[in-house]
Specification:
- By secondary structure, the protein is an all-beta fold.
- It has strands at residues 3-7, 10-13, 18-25, 32-39, 46-52, 58-60, 68-73, 78-83, 92-100, 108-109, 113-118.
- Strand 5 (46-52) and strand 6 form a beta hairpin.
- The radius of gyration is 13 Å and the shape is globular.
- The termini are far apart.
């Protein structure tokens, strides 16, 4: 059974930093693309960043480019989202997701972790 378990959310002041972690299990993820999405209160879910597990190619939403960094640690089998210069508008539930690199749809989702940025 595939599981994506997120951790690392919390409350931080504007300008601060947080690092989210996503630990996938249940299959080999080397042919997968790992991503972070977020859903702010009253808004639709939006894409944040993605990384190819094999090769490490990354892509970011314009709203987080230059402030967030997605990475993966093969030894730890973990995907990270390092968030810096946080803004109140970054407040959301953050979700880890995975899709096969040949697929357009994200098939696996974590339960989400809350990030709250106070002004």
């Amino acid at each position: 059974q595939v599981q994506l378990v997120e951790s690392g959310g919390g409350l931080v002041q504007a300008g601060g930093s947080l690092r989210l972690s996503c630990a996938p299990s249940g299959r080999t993820f080397s042919p997968y693309v790992m991503a972070w999405f977020r859903r702010a209160p009253g808004k639709e879910r939006e894409f944040v960043a993605r990384i190819y597990w094999s090769g490490g190619s990354t892509y970011y939403a314009d709203s987080v480019k230059g402030r967030f960094t997605i990475s993966r640690d093969n030894a730890e089998n973990t995907v990270y989202l390092q968030m810096s210069s946080l803004k109140p508008e970054d407040t959301a539930v953050y979700y880890c997701a995975a899709r096969h690199r040949a697929s357009a749809e994200y098939d696996y989702w974590g339960q989400g972790t809350q990030v709250t940025v106070s002004s």
